[in-house]
Amino acid sequence: MDSHDTRGVSPLLLARAALGGLLMGLANLVPGISGGTMLLAAGVYPAFIDGVAELTSLRLRLRPLALVGTVAAAAALAILLLAGSVRLLVVEHRWVMYSLFIGLTLGGAPLVWRMLRPPTPAVWAGVAAGLTLMLLMIAGLGGDAGGERSTALLLLSGLAGASAMILPGVSGGYLLLLLGQYEVILGAIDAIKRGLLAAPPDVEGIGAAMGIAVPVGVGVLIGVVGVSHGLRWLLRHHAAPTLGALLGLLLGAVIGLWPFQQPRQPRAGELHAGRVLDAAQAAALPRDDWPLERFRPSPVQVGGALGLIAAGLGVTLALGRLGGEPAP
Fold first, then answer.
1. Which residue range is the domain that position 252 belongs to?
2. Percent of the chain scored above 70 by pLDDT?
3. Would you say the C-alpha torsion 11, 230, 53, 80 has a positive or negative sign?
4. Which three-class secondary structure string do you get for the chain?
5. Whether 80 contacts 72, CB under 8 Å
6. What pLDDT is attached to residue 300?
7. Which of 67, 73, 72, 69 is nearest to 44 (CA)?
8. Contacts with 125 (C-beta within 8 Å, 6 or more apart), sequence order
9. Angle at CA 48, nearest 5°, toward 44 and 52?
10. Is residue 142 included in any domain, yes or no?
């Protein structure tokens, strides 16, 4: 390791990395929110991608180690400490949380715009491509895999989840829902936890769950290494269209966060996670798995949403000004 490589390792950079990691961890708790978008909003996205690519190439320098380590530690801490609270807030106060997420996400747009000025035709082509891709995802193209558990599909799910951690505007939870693997993977994680806590440990249950967790983990590893290296190459050789596409993904993500929607009790005969629910299954489905429907907001809710959007926007804009330009 080159311990003398201290370029850019400053308290301001680490503070932005910590906040970006915290927001990334929170984002990974909620389908529809992108962890990569949060890093983009914090202004550390290009440096993070470069750092991951270097570390996976076994180039152990202090700056990427400090940056990636800070982001990872903050994200893990957020997931560990706040998973239950954030999930409850989103389920019970969705329009409040989504309004805040919109502001946090929009705050990243000026940071990206600053990096790609002056705009060129290549930039606008990238914006259009990224925005179109995000709109297609929001529309739900790609179908439902029906909850199948083939090894190939589990590998693809891990790859999708890892890619979403890196690609702004792309939600890992949302992609897993499209693939029909969200509940499968969460169920496997829960089975491993319950098996380890049992007395004696449930070796058979753990082994069965590992049959799901291992292919997903391999997919995550491939996704992190492949996507980080691919994006690093694109940012170095085709920066304008790549940053334009990232901006399009970021803006498109906001459309999928329309705040005025609420959970609705599912009905018998509806399709959910690849299966048609009967009356008992529909009644037993937890509230946080209910489908969403839009509602007409009151004037107070509209005003509150605008205020929360402004607050989230102010946080990320202030963060962007904290250290000047986004971290190179």
1. 11-260+296-322
2. 79
3. positive
4. CECCCCCCCCHHHHHHHHHHHHHHHHHCCCCCCCHHHHHHHHCCHHHHHHHHHHHHCCCCEHHHHHHHHHHHHHHHHHHHHHHHHHHHHHHHCHHHHHHHHHHHHHCHHHHHHHHHCCCCHHHHHHHHHHHHHHHHHHCCCCCCCCCCCCHHHHHHHHHHHHHHHHCCCCCHHHHHHHHCCHHHHHHHHHHHHHHHHCCCCCHHHHHHHHHHHHHHHHHHHHHHHHHHHHHHHHHHHCHHHHHHHHHHHHHHHHHCCCCCEEECCCCCCCEECCEECCHHHHHHCCHHHCCEEECCCCHHHHHHHHHHHHHHHHHHHHHHHHCCCCCC
5. no
6. 94
7. 67
8. 241, 244
9. 175
10. yes
Q: What is the mean pLDDT of residues 303-314?
A: 91
Q: How far apart are CA 67 and CA 45, in angstroms?
A: 10
Structure-token pair, residue 139: 């529309």
pLDDT by residue (tens digit) across 220-235? 888 878 877 887 788 7
| pLDDT of 147 strictly over 80 | no
Task: Specify the pLDDT at position 57.
Answer: 78
Whether 108 maps to a domain, the answer reads: yes
> 52-66, 158-172, 266-280 — which is least confidently predicted?
158-172
Say how far apart CA 171 and CA 30 lie, in whole Å. Answer: 8
Q: Grade residue 268 by pLDDT with cuts at 50, 70 and 90.
A: confident
Neighbour tally for 141: CB within 10 Å: 10
For the chain, give the number of residues.
328
Owner of token pair 């990232």: 246
If one counts the domains in the chain, the total is 1
Domain assignment of residue 54, yes or no: yes
Res. 118: pLDDT tops 60 = yes
In a domain, 145, yes or no: yes
Place of tokens 């983009």: 40
Please write the tens of the pLDDT for every residue from 185-229: 767 777 887 888 888 888 888 888 888 889 988 988 888 788 778
